[in-house]
């Protein structure tokens, strides 16, 4: 019985690092600058940190180290006014189609992103987004720093004509559609930050699952965090591994058993769609798919160094 308290402590500690979709609520008042502007309405569900919202005191979210994770929900016809940040911010589309616009000097490039596509919004670039499709958009936003500064609004309807704000600052004729091979400087810049799921190589690990690297070696090479999509077939799992930074699994499809290990004790729990586990630096952890269908998992690692883990099949 001597090690019972350790086991309980491990279980409690791990449970405290799980964010369950069903324990959380969407917050329609996360962004004070949207209040009073029906066209800007969006809801935020916070998992790690406050994301781009000022709600840093929310105790139901996990503490951020190097990145935040939230879900954003937006309905057809709504948009987000063009703004910029001092840091990178990624949008991973989960459902629906999202138009993202980048603005510079009154010119805008708009890209249409579908499920599992991602854009990393560059530092200091004016960006906004809009739902023109027939279904709402669910996306996961990560800001690559624990506590980002508030956004700087460039074309907000409080001081910009509504139609100009909706087009992210482009007058008629000043909007370009995204072209990966375009020669305009803004096209060239955006092309480095747009990731299409269908264009990314699928890497088969010897341990029996797939990775697509969105941010990191092979994807957008960057200096902040690594972002990957994992495809884990039924009955595949890996042995415990440890990182010197935190990481997070956000399940998109299927379900995943995740576990922690400490002094020979183990604790595991199942994550379903839109459940998240954050594992702190130095904590041995592993995953296994016990389901009949494959699991698709959005995976964020707290630095952009080359991969140090060699996954071993469990
Ligand atoms: Fe932003």
Automatic annotation (TrEMBL):
Query: What Pfam families does the record tag this protein with?
Result: Cupin_2
Q: Where is the Cupin type-2 domain?
A: 244-299
Sorted alphabetically, which SUPFAM superfamilies does this protein's record hold? RmlC-like cupins (SSF51182)
Q: Spell out the InterPro entries in the cross-references.
A: Cupin_2, RmlC-like_jellyroll, RmlC_Cupin_sf
Q: What is this protein called?
A: Cupin type-2 domain-containing protein
Give the originating organism.
Paenochrobactrum glaciei
């Amino acid at each position: 019985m001597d090690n019972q308290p350790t086991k309980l402590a491990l279980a409690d500690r791990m449970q405290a690092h799980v964010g369950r979709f069903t324990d959380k609520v969407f917050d329609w008042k996360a962004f004070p600058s949207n209040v009073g502007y029906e066209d800007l309405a969006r809801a935020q569900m916070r998992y790690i940190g406050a994301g781009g919202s000022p709600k840093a005191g929310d105790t139901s979210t996990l503490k951020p180290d190097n990145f935040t994770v939230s879900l954003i929900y937006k309905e057809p016809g709504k948009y987000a006014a063009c703004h910029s940040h001092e840091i990178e911010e990624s949008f991973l589309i989960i459902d629906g189609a999202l138009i993202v616009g980048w603005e510079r000097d009154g010119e805008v490039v708009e890209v249409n992103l579908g499920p599992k596509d991602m854009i990393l919004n560059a530092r200091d670039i004016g960006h906004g987004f809009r739902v023109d499709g027939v279904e709402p958009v669910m996306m996961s936003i990560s800001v690559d720093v624990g506590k980002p500064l508030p956004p700087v609004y460039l074309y907000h309807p409080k001081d910009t004509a509504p139609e100009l704000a909706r087009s992210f600052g482009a007058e008629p004729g000043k909007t370009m559609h995204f072209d990966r091979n375009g020669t305009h400087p803004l096209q060239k810049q955006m092309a480095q930050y747009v990731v299409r799921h269908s264009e990314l190589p699928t890497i088969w690990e010897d341990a029996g699952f797939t990775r697509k690297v969105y941010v990191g070696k092979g994807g957008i090479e960057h200096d902040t965090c690594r972002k990957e999509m994992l495809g884990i077939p039924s009955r595949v799992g890996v042995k415990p591994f440890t990182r010197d930074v935190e990481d997070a699994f956000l399940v998109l499809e299927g379900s995943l058993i995740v576990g922690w290990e400490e002094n020979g004790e183990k604790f595991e729990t199942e994550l379903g769609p839109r459940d998240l586990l954050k594992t702190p630096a130095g904590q041995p952890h592993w995953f296994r798919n016990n389901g009949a269908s494959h699991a698709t998992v959005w995976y964020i690692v707290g630095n952009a160094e080359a991969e140090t883990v060699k996954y071993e099949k469990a």
